[in-house]
Design goal:
The chain is globular, with a radius of gyration of 19 Å. It contains 5 helices and no strands. About 70% of the residues lie in helices and about 0% in strands. By secondary structure, the chain is mainly alpha-helical.
């Protein structure tokens, strides 16, 4: 179930991001069963105010879904796998650094602006 959730999350993020950029998204989608909660998590993250908030939404939703998988599991293989996934969420979250993320975003944004072919009102390249 977790794999389907994660796949649905990633596919929906690809679809939403491609839609924002007015690009076809079919080539970015991976085949698999749809998990409604994964789609819902992607949509919530996509509506976040900034990339960091979006990532925090994803991690909260990921944690919540893993918790539902561990309900009524008492130290069996499913519980151990859920516990491992929760540790991975915590490790990823611990690596978040707002300042580094902001600087990385500015670097990428500058790069995009420098390579973009855009025109002023007269139609001439700038």
């Amino acid at each position: 179930r977790y794999h389907h959730w994660e796949l649905s999350l990633r596919n929906e993020l690809a679809r939403l991001r491609a839609g924002r950029m007015q690009k076809p998204f079919d080539k970015y989608l991976k085949p698999g069963e749809l998990e409604h909660d994964g789609v819902k998590a992607a949509q919530a993250a996509f509506q976040a105010e900034d990339p960091l908030q979006g990532e925090l939404v994803i991690e909260r939703e990921r944690w919540s879904f893993i918790e539902t998988l561990a309900v009524n599991k008492y130290f069996d293989i499913e519980y151990i796998i859920a516990y491992s996934l929760m540790l991975q969420v915590l490790e990823r979250r611990a690596r978040f650094d707002a300042e580094k993320g902001s600087e990385g975003y500015r670097t990428v944004y500058r790069s995009v602006l420098e390579t973009a072919d855009y025109r002023d009102e007269s139609g001439e390249n700038k």
